[in-house]
Here is the input.
Amino acid sequence: MSRSFVTDSTEDLASTLTQEDSREPSDSGHEESAPPSLFRSLVLRLRICFFLFGTINNVLYVIILSAALDLVPTGTPKGIIAFCNIAPSLAAKIGWPYLLKGKIQYKQRIIGCCFMSVMGMTVVAAFNYLSMRLLGIALASLSSGLGELTFLQLSTTYTSSGVSGDALGYFASGTGCAGLLGAGLWWVLRGFGVQLGVGLSSLLPFVIPLAYFLVLPTATNFLNAGTYTPFEHDHYMGIPSAEIPAESPSMIITSNRDNASSGASSVCLTPADKWRLVRPLILRYMAPLFCVYTFEYTINQGISPTLIFAVPKPSQHPVLSHIVKSIRDYYPLWQLIYQTTVFLSRSSISLGLPPLPRKYLPVPAILQAFILIFLFLESSRGIIPPGETGQPDDDESASILWVAFFIAIEGICGGSAYVNAFYHVGHEDLDVASQDPLAFERQVQEREFKIGAIGLADTFGILTASLLAVPVEIKLCHDQISRGRELCRKV
Here is the structure.
């Protein structure tokens, strides 16, 4: 199946750019087999595009959080930035899948997301007023939430399970990369000042429509390229590579989805249909995602800022002393460890690792709960035992190492929960052998809805954590002061 909005002119452009992308059926009615090199070329383009989609769509979110100190006046709670940066995204993920009907207009969505992102960052850069900056942040957040929803749904439009899995895996990897890239990019751009630094970042969203219209292969390209499937995760999942003949129903749907006047365009899911589809997803996917992200961001925003230790001495810690030069360096260190492991775990499928079996999807949430409890107790009471000599330096060293270890596991749990949940939803059964084009179109819309419907779980978890983080941080700092540690007052 193809994207619904691809016009004849766009197809002509794609044909001009890559003349080998499509092949005509032979006279016998059977499609010629394409060489593996052609399929590999299509897959490479697909991977690059979805990696860019994930990176660019999420990088503005990270830049805004990284620039929070520079965007609000002194004394203004930084939590207001986090709230404006997540609440509109949640609204987009709730509104679009559940309220809109019919086939998805990907072209309009992508252009709209690009416009909102550019406008949002331009408003942040152009105005010094807090209210206007918050408005700009809200626009960028709305665009990010709608963009993530759109690209997750777009990955399901590739009827081959292998190609769809590749798209989802590289998009998830890109979202993980956004954390590292965004923090590093703002470290460079902040030297130009807020207005110029944020203004330059407003150019990034243009990468998405350029990649989409000029590089991304359509689903039709893969159907015409033969039956070769390089994506090995299907073998782990027990999913056979689908052989789709030239005149298969999926090819009919491809034509119908490109033709606004076809019967397939009249297919739409009712509210009752959507509730029937989402009900089994609540416990299977949404509850684990919500728990993982609530625990994860409560750690990041409420507990990590209080995990502060004495500055290591160069004579005793020659490596760590070059990284941590003041007590304010601990929080960025924890975030660097966290973002790195999130990136690696979200890249697990694209790196060739098998997906986590569906029955084990709650495991990351359970581990995340234990990590939250451990780090909470360490911050509040200092439960890590002293070193062998019982000296303070040994105690601090042990605490730093254990905290770094558990934060790394936290990132792995969060990233693996994200990529595996969406991977399994994207691989819900799709009957490519259906002889009814309207029935096939309905299945397509159901898959698009399901992968979009669960997206609100992680965002709602982040929003919940932002409300919990402030009282948690205050309590932990108070507990440390009561036992004679006053470092949290100096940050």
The first helix runs from residue 8 to 17. The CA atoms of residues 387 and 394 lie 5 Å apart.
